[in-house]
Amino acid sequence: MVVRRLKEIDHYERQLRDRGIDAVAGVDEAGRGALAGPLVAAAVILPDGFDLDGVEDSKLLTPKQRSEAFGRITEAAVAWSACKAMPARIDRAGLHRTNMSLLRRALRRLEVSPEFVLCDGFPLKRLPIPSVGVRKGDVVSASIAAASIVAKVTRDRIMDRYHRRFPDYGFRTNKGYGTEAHWEALWRLGPTPIHRRSFNHVLHPLSPEEYRRLKEASS
C-alpha cells in the first residue's frame, strides 16, 4: 500500500538533525489489543541516509515486506532493541502501565543513548531526554515506523512458536487477536497460559452465536 503524505516520512528526523540532534530514537509497540501472547515494544535509531523504501507502518505491509524491512533495519540501525511483557504482568499491572514501562525499557536497552525520542501518539513521561508524541507516528515518522516493524515481526515470530504449542487456537494466523475462530477455540477449550485473563470475556468466552451477534451489533 502506498501512503500519500504531505511530508516525507523522515520529516521529523531531518528537522531534528538540522538542529544538531543525530541520535533520534523511535519507539512503538505491537500486541496491545491481542487476547493472547506478549506485548512487545521496540526502539530504533536509524542512521542518516538510511534507505526508507518499504519502511511504513507495519500494519500496511505484508508479512514478506515486514520481514524484509526487519532485516534491513536491524542490520543497518545505529541501535535497536525489542523487549516483551507476558500476559501475567499485563493482568497484574494493567495494559497501559505495562506498555509505558515496556517502551521505557526498550529505550534503556539501546546500545547507543538517544538524544531525542519520537513516540507513537503520546510522549513518554519520566525520561531523562526530551520526547514528543507524534499523531499517527508509525505513518509519518521513519524511526517510529521502523520500531513498529521490529516490534511486529518480533511478536509475530513469538506467536508462530506458540502456535506449535497450542495449534487449536490458530495463533499462526490470528497472532492472538480476537478473530471468530480464536473466540470459538476459547469457547470450546478455555484459555491457555498465554491468554490475558483480565481482558473482557477471556475467562468466560463468548459462544460463536454471541460473538456473531456482538459483531453484527458493532458493525
Structure description:
The chain is an alpha/beta fold. The protein is built from 9 helices and 5 strands; from the N terminus they run αββαβααββααααα. It has a 5-stranded mixed sheet with strand order 3-2-1-4-5, sandwiched between helices. The protein is elongated. The two termini are 24 Å apart.
Give the SSE string. Answer: HEEHEHHEEHHHHH
If strands are numbered along the chain, what order do they take across the biggest sheet?
3-2-1-4-5
The helix content, as a percent range, equals 40-55%
Gyration radius from CA atoms, angstroms: 18 Å
Largest sheet: 5 strands, mixed
Unreliable stretches, pLDDT < 50, 5 or more residues? Answer: 1-6
Shape: elongated
Helix tally equals: 9
In total, how many beta strands? 5
Secondary structural class: alpha/beta
Alpha carbon gap, first and last residue: 24 Å
Strand content: 5-15%
Q: Mean pLDDT, rounded to whole units? A: 92
